[in-house]
Amino acid sequence: MGRAPCCDKANVKKGPWSPEEDAKLKAYIEQHGTGGNWIALPHKIGLKRCGKSCRLRWLNYLRPNIKHGGFSEEEDNIICSLYISIGSRWSIIAAQLPGRTDNDIKNYWNTRLKKKLLGKQRKEQQARRGNSCLKQEMIKREIDQTTSVVPAVAGIDIMMNNQTPYWPELPFVTPPLVSSQQDQSSLKDLLIKLGGRFCDGDHHQQSITAACPFDASLAQSQDDQLLYDSNTMSLLSIASPTSMNISSTQLPNTQYNVIGAAPNMSQGLANFPFEQLNDQYVAYTNNHQQLEELERLYVSGSTTGNSTSADQSSSWEDMSSLVYSTMVSDYETCQQSVPQDSTSFEDERYFGHQ
DNA sequence: AACATCTTCAACCGCGATTTC
DNA sequence: AGAAATCGCGGTTGAAGATGT
């Protein structure tokens, strides 16, 4: 036995709403509110509609200050970043975009943003076709050829100074494991803090405090923050005196960004040297052992997550590989662009923790 | 102009969570 | 405590419009 239907399907109108129905519903709610009972509402105002349908119509269309279409680049970035970090939690994503509804964002993602992203990836792949090296090996080789400080491949995105990154410059992450109500509310609490805490993308020196955004245990402190960096389009960090603090800094020629971490990674990262530079923390290592450890942490951390649903995991695989290729691509770009005689990586201060 | 195919998005559906009785 | 009612969410559908042939 399934659950009882919420309304009498036979006597309920379906399909597009007429202007008259809209007017009735709008007028009633504006005057009386919803009364806390959507199921009873259509009967009160003489609408032959299901209560759920009324609710949806109000929330997605009639409610004041709703925006439709015309998504800005910044909104694109936010949606994209949040999707990669938290998955298809459209209501949470919508909460970060005033005037947008979860339905709108979901539609926008499914019909445009996703394609835009996949199109980027395809171009990337074509550009790299013919290259026989495995991605990881390629990174390592490049690293081996570099005598300078090695950007911590694990979770650190690299991009050239003054080069506008195409989005998403995002962490290679797995979906958050939100299995319990507590986790969910914790995640929500964190996300709520997102609003208004975006970094100013124009700042050359900007702090991105990063930790694993999905490790709820790291987010217990009241001082924890979530940040979105509109410049790098990377996001979602937790920062508190009790959490591990990692930040980004902009070195001459190259900007290193710590952009989040895979589950269980943050604690591992805490073992790696971070140097405070003004108000920034710079993560670095030129120790191959440490580098391998970072890579191992990163790879294992980002592949051991227990996906909560099969359908979600497949889309996450897509997105993860996408982000991964972006990272590789950025790294390659960086390696090609940085002059060989550049001393920026070799600056003594970046070698302090051998 | 006519038809086929693709894209968009409003609306529906089912299900888990929460609240009420 | 447990069943029923309701809410809220995310996935899916299908009509309508846009675009291609």
UniProtKB/TrEMBL annotation:
Cellular component per GO, a single term: nucleus
UniProt subcellular location: Nucleus
Record's keyword annotation contains Transmembrane helix: no
Database matches in PROSITE patterns: HTH_MYB, MYB_LIKE
Residue span, Myb-like domain: 9-62, 63-113
MF terms in GO: DNA binding; DNA-binding transcription factor activity
GO biological process: regulation of DNA-templated transcription
Keyword Hydrolase: no
Limits of the HTH myb-type domain: 9-62, 63-117
Pfam families named in the record: Myb_DNA-binding
Keywords from the named record: DNA-binding, Nucleus, Repeat, Transcription, Transcription regulation
PANTHER family, per the entry: MYB-LIKE DNA-BINDING DOMAIN CONTAINING PROTEIN, EXPRESSED, OS09G0431300 PROTEIN
Name recorded for this polypeptide: Uncharacterized protein
